[in-house]
Design goal:
With 258 residues, the chain is mostly helical. The chain has twelve helices and two strands; from the N terminus they run ββαααααααααααα. It binds iron/sulfur cluster.
């Protein structure tokens, strides 16, 4: 059976995976394997507590379970733009610069001069583009409440693609939008669970697999963070399969062993 096409009926079975209750659907190999992988990654790497945010009086964002107020939600939205095409390490340097200048503030981002903001966000790379995007985002957020932001509105902002929009919606707004990134595609293509690079298709597969679970938003948040961690620790460009916690589920690994 083609793993990637195996949708089936949901059941009422639940399983506790490291504190997150997830529903185990019956009749679908794809759904079962997705949940098994989630459980294995959670056991291996534990909860990731994304998205990192800065506590009052601090400069460096920390992994404390996500934003708790609107300033931290804004920081997440800014971070989602700053981490485009670069590592979190670089984005974090720019966030720390913003914190040093008390610039995690919609009005201040709108008012600050372009050249000055360029310098502040420079460590995140592509800084001119990012300055423009932060200013457009600030204009958009000025008249919005985080709870009422719609995906289609975010995607209309220049430079905000599906991945950035879903990161903002999931981690800043607490909405059930699964985030897909290059790591997700790499890992799940190697596992043999998907056979596509199409963002919306991959997102739909995950959402169909996970919809109906208790703690859906937390599950989406943790799963994406675990995927990123797994890509960094094992499923790199040159994968380190021998010590991989999900190798038993992996087509790529099985082919290596043949
Ligand atoms: S076995 Fe190798 S290719 Fe498969 S998920 Fe693990 S690291 Fe990636």
């Amino acid at each position: 059976m083609d793993r990637a096409s195996g949708f089936g009926e949901d059941s009422k079975n639940f399983e506790d995976t490291g504190g997150l209750r997830v529903r185990i659907p019956s009749g679908s190999l794809f759904l079962m394997v997705i949940l098994e992988i989630y459980s294995l990654l959670l056991n291996k790497y534990r909860r990731q507590l994304w998205w990192p945010v800065t506590e009052e009086g601090q400069i460096k964002p920390e992994y404390t379970g996500g934003p708790k107020n609107d300033k931290q939600r804004l920081e997440v939205a800014i971070g989602a733009v700053l981490t485009q095409n670069t590592s979190w390490k670089n984005a974090e340097k720019a966030i720390m610069n913003l914190n040093r200048k008390s610039l995690i503030d919609i009005e201040k981002i709108k008012k600050i001069g372009i050249k000055e903001l360029d310098e502040v966000v420079r460590p995140s790379g592509f800084y001119r583009q990012k300055t423009e995007r932060l200013k457009l985002l600030a204009e958009f957020l000025e008249s919005r409440d985080f709870s009422s932001i719609k995906r289609e509105e975010l995607i209309r902002i220049k430079g905000i693609g599906p991945e950035t929009a879903d990161s903002i919606l999931l981690y800043a707004c607490g909405k059930p939008e699964f985030v897909v990134d290059a790591y997700t595609k790499r890992i799940f293509n190697r596992l043999g669970l998907i056979n596509t690079e199409n963002y919306e298709e991959v997102k739909r597969l995950f959402q169909r697999a996970l919809t109906g679970n208790n703690n859906l938003i937390q599950t989406y948040q943790e799963f994406h963070a675990l995927i990123v961690e797994h890509a960094k620790q094992h499923c790199k460009k040159e994968p380190e399969c021998a010590s991989c916690p999900i190798k038993k589920e992996c087509n790529y690994y099985k082919q290596l062993k043949q």
